[in-house]
Structures are given as C-alpha cells and as structure tokens.
Fold:
Amino acid sequence: MTDTSSFSVILVEPQLGENIGMVARAMWNCGIRDLRLVNPRDGWPSQPARAACSGAGIVVEAARVYESTSDAIADLNFVLATTARSRDMTKPAFTPEAAAKEMKGRAGTGHNIGVLYGKESSGLDNDDIALADATITVPLNPEFTSLNLAQAVLLLSYEWFKLEDQSVPYELQMPDDTRPANKQELLWLYEHLEQELDNKGFLMVTEKRPIMIRKIRNMLARAQMTEQEVRIYRGMIASLVRTRRPGDPADISED
Amino acid sequence: MTDTSSFSVILVEPQLGENIGMVARAMWNCGIRDLRLVNPRDGWPSQPARAACSGAGIVVEAARVYESTSDAIADLNFVLATTARSRDMTKPAFTPEAAAKEMKGRAGTGHNIGVLYGKESSGLDNDDIALADATITVPLNPEFTSLNLAQAVLLLSYEWFKLEDQSVPYELQMPDDTRPANKQELLWLYEHLEQELDNKGFLMVTEKRPIMIRKIRNMLARAQMTEQEVRIYRGMIASLVRTRRPGDPADISED
Structure:
C-alpha cells in the first residue's frame, strides 16, 4: 500500500456519527488513515461511527478531535476546502482529479496535505474556506448536486488512490489452469467445424462458401478462446454431429 | 445535462431499500436515471429507498422490477458486471475508468449499456457474470476492499459523468465585481510598499536592497491579487505607517 501518511481528512463539525464511520470506510478503501474531527456534534468516540465503518476501525479508533479548524490544520502545509461552486472569494478552484494531482505532487516533496469537509447540512463556512489554499468542487449533474459526505470523501480519495494504482485498465483475465489458445489450436477448431458443416451440407453453395467461412472464423476469433475452451468447443461439435442412441452415456467431458 | 438514457444500472437482488435509495442518489448525481431491480429482497416500492434517495425521487419512482437478470438486460447491447478481482472465468476485465470509456464509445453509436451490481452480502453470482460482456473491478486498498453498494455505483457513474463534463480542472475563481489586477496596478503597489519601507529604513543595506525587493515582489506576485485586493493592500500600508492619535476615526475602507 502507498504511504499516504501525508494525507489528512478533516471533517469540520460533522453531525452524524454514522457519516463519520462511512467517511472512515471510504478513506480506508483508498488507503487513507488520518482522520481529524473538528467539534463533532454528537461527541467522540461514537458508537454509530464504529458501527458504520464496516471494518475500517483502524481509521475510526485513531481519529483525533480538535476544537477549531485552525488547530486541526496547524501542522499541514497545503489545505484544500471542498465547496459547492461559488464566487464569494477569490480562490483557486480544482476539480477532484486536478486536486489529487496537485496534492500528490506536493506530498511527493514531503509536504503534509489535508482536505476540509464541512458539516452535512451546510458545508464549510467562509472563515474556514479562507484558511485553505484552494477549493475543490465536484462537478455533478447541475439538477442534483446534493452529495452525501462520505460520497464526497470517496470521490476525492479515489482520485488520489488512482494516481498510484497499478491496475491494468483492460485485461483478459483467465483461470490459472489455462492460457489463450494458440493459432494452431484455433485453426484445428475451424477446420473441424468446417469439415462437419461440409458433411451436413451447410456450406454447399460453392460461391458463398469462402464468405461464410470468413464470417464464422471471424466470429470465433473474436471470442478470444482459451485452449480449454477450444477443447470444449470441439467436444460440442463432436457431440452435435453424433447420432445418439437411447442408453448411450452422456459425453460431457470438461477436464 | 448529457443524454444518459442509454445507461442502465441493474441491481441484482438488492437487500436493503436504504441502499437502493442511496444508489439512486449517486446515479442522479451523475445524471443517470434508468434503475432496474432484479428481485429486491424487501419488495418494491420501498419506503426506506424513498427516504434515502435525498431528492433523487426521479430515479426511485421510475425504477423497474424484473424477475431475473436475463429479463432485466434483455434490451441491452453491452453489459458489464461489477466483481471483486477473480480468475474464475475467462473474461475481459476493466477498471472503472476504462469501462466508462468503453461504454461511452458504444453508447455513442446508439447501443444500450448496462452495469450489473450484486447483492450487498455476496455480490453477483457466476451465472449472472457469465451473461455479461466483461467485468469491472474497482481497484482499492488491498487490505480493505469492502465497498458499499452505493459507493461502487457512484465511482463508476462518476467516471462516466466525467467523460462529458466540461469543468475547468483549475481556475482562479473570483467575485463578479472584481478582476485580476493588471501589472501596472501591481507595480504601483510594489513602489508604494518599497517607498514606505525605504522611509522606515527597512531597505537600508544598499547591497541587499535589490535581493530583498525581488523576494517581496515575487511573494506578492504569487498571491495573484485582484484589483480590489491591491486597493486593500495599499490601504493597509497607508494605515500601518500612519501615526494614529487617540480619537482618530478607524480607517477600514473596503469598498
């Protein structure tokens, strides 16, 4: 896991313990551990927070409580405030993705980074926003911008997490006991199928035969079969052409 | 708002109405409206779903219920299944970001797109996954991959939303009644400040004067002041150098 010790989430006057727990869960999903609470309305520690964190107790138990936003950010070097889009103040404004990049760059040079989130009902007040270096606004459906606190924390945390995530954007996953078929195995499959189709008269019209074979081969190629699947396919062909008599054993034989 | 009529969210056997409501909220945050429910455990309609959707009633009220996953996806052309990373099946696997791009491309050619999400306790079963064209796995902290249903829907929906979002990644926002200071206004400010500092003897050491002036000008330039802020700043300088006598009026004069 990435070292995210330099990233702090600060909830200013959060109202519901349950939301604090869900914030902790979203943070820890993204490998972020440092949670700071400024005057949580219902006190701290909080049983609803523990119940809602769904296993992210590592974050909830280590959360620290502060009496003011100033206290909570005193040791941080770069602080962003999450807000709805507004022009009340002259302030740099980031999208979550751009904010994550900016924070990652600063964290990489050893600076302590934090993001401020306001209370569920009304967000951050302007005095807290004034303390921050810049704001973050999540772009959303303009007809419906009401984002749950934990959802806001998740979106920003996930953008941060993604910057170091090594996942391959697209891959063909497969079980360990198989591998992609090679082209010889596929050619044998094509020939097997075409032979049986010839036997049954499916490819009888001579001038259409090459076109139909191309369509069939193309369709099968696109399936990106494993060598195991090629064997299943050939088993199906063999089964379909067989004249089965009452009493014959079933022939499902995947190995 | 983007036309997202081609994007469907399918919840297979969701357990809690509250989670369905939170899914609806996350969808509508991202402009997605078509919610399909396969055998919701506690029935439908659901009062907890209505209560939890926080204003996304447009999604909850229009949700449709199906008896099987096959029924729910019958009219769709491309279906992705959300899963934990697994190699049980040979299947293309996307990250949410790559999946959103793939879906957007297909939606752009008129195809109907859907994403399957399994029940909260155990996810999708393999028979449902087998019906899908590919899987999506959200990369997360390997120590804690338990993602709430609505959080999973949000992350994928947000990646979809972002692809057409026009937000500027970074901008200096400011109130409508001001504008960035021009360089002449800033030069007058610098000269005003340097004049007063000279008067007080702050820049007395001749060989250090140019360096100090450069540092001060650089610091002030970085603040990206508005013309209003330049006036506030010059007002502060004027105030600081004034000899105030008892009884003088206060001179805060922001206009």
